[in-house]
Amino acid sequence: MTKQSAENVEASLRAICSKDAIADVARFFYDGLGETQVLGVGIGRVFPIAKAHAGLPLPEIDRLLDSSFYEVRMAAAAIMDFQARQKTPANALATLYELYLGRHDRLNNWDLVDRAAPYVIGQYLDDKPRDPLYDLASSPDPWRRRTAIVATYYFIRKGDLHDTFAICARLAGDQHDMVQKAIGSWVRTAGEADRDRLKTFLTENRTHLSATAIRMATEKLSVEEKAFFRAKSSRS
After folding, report:
1. Residue 137 and residue 44 in one domain
2. Is residue 45's pLDDT more than 90?
């Protein structure tokens, strides 16, 4: 049986790292690496290691989040996601939720957020007031704002679209590219369930949204509708 420890997760990643992969992996880190380092493990190769350590105790996940290495923190996010999907008892899901929010400074890239937010944050809030998402949407940190949007995927898949459109409307004028891209992608997904609501959202917010968000949001509309909404964007 694979030993469930933070050291073993990192050792498994180091065993498959490659200096040749460092530049390719680093390009996924949006805001520049800063203090973050890269081992050189393709992100798709991180997930099998995370799955093999899906039983990692919470303190050990916390230790992974302390790492300066991007792939190690991605493993932590993936392990949280795996645990949240495993019919986790309510108290265990609550501790994952608290860990995610308490260490959000370490979940500081778009893919770290996207991996864990739907099931760790969205699932936890499914039967609770959604106020924490609106608090996140008001954060000066763009990754917390992205969490506010991305977490609603859990609701979308159940046909609950309100918070996706409401939060995206609140953030329509956001200046961060990865928040705008989250808006475009998530309202498009919600729009697959309610096309009219998507078009209403675009009509009401098109002058605030970036051209990128509008392009993403309209990908599944008709040619005529795409042309109409994309022509109305006033942002680059």
Report:
1. no
2. yes
